[in-house]
Amino acid sequence: MTLEFQNVIVHSADPHALGQWWAEALDWVVVYRSDVEFAIRPEPDRRPGLEFVLLEESKKAKSRLHLDFVPDDQDAEVARLEAHGAQRVDIGQGDQSWVVMADPEGNEFCVLGRRPQ
User: Fold this and answer.
1) Does the structure show a pLDDT above 90 at 83?
2) Residue 35: other Cβ atoms inside 10 A
3) In angstroms, rounded to a whole number, what is the distance separating the alpha carbons of residues 52 and 39?
4) Which residues does residue 101 pair with via DSSP β-bridges, in sequence order?
5) DSSP element (H, E) containing 78
6) pLDDT surpassing 80 at residue 62
């Protein structure tokens, strides 16, 4: 038996708005939308993707799962994401080489520094 990694599910109060925000932030394509779901991928046939699913309750605590991104230029990418509506957040990480940010619904993600080759 084999398993194929399909999606990371993100519960959202507004799947369409949050999914569109992430599609623009990542320059990904929308592959599915309905009143309660919004799915994006890097390319139409490339997985895994992100699927935003309606959950009508607000986020209550630090996310137990978050995404990490490795940019070519951390400072430029953090500035671009802030201009797009992300915010820097403090989850107790202290002084680190990564920047913890949150999307418009408060879901944390990290923008890492370049790792040594």
Assistant:
1) yes
2) 8
3) 6
4) 88, 109
5) helix 74-83
6) no
Tokens representing 79?
């500035």
CA separation for the pair 49, 71 (Å, rounded):
18
- CA 68 to chain CA centroid, nearest Å: 8
Residue 97 has pLDDT above 80, yes or no: yes
In this predicted structure, what is the pLDDT of residue 117?
A: 60
Q: In the prediction, which pLDDT does 58 show?
A: 77
The dihedral over CA atoms of 37, 42, 43, 45, expressed in degrees to the nearest 10, equals -70
List the one residue out of 107, 113, 115, 114 whose CA is nearest residue 50.
Answer: 107
Task: Answer for the pair 112, 78: CB distance below 8 angstroms, yes or no.
Answer: no
- Distances from the Cα of 19 to the Cαs of 9, 28, 57, 76, 100, in angstroms? 11, 10, 17, 22, 20
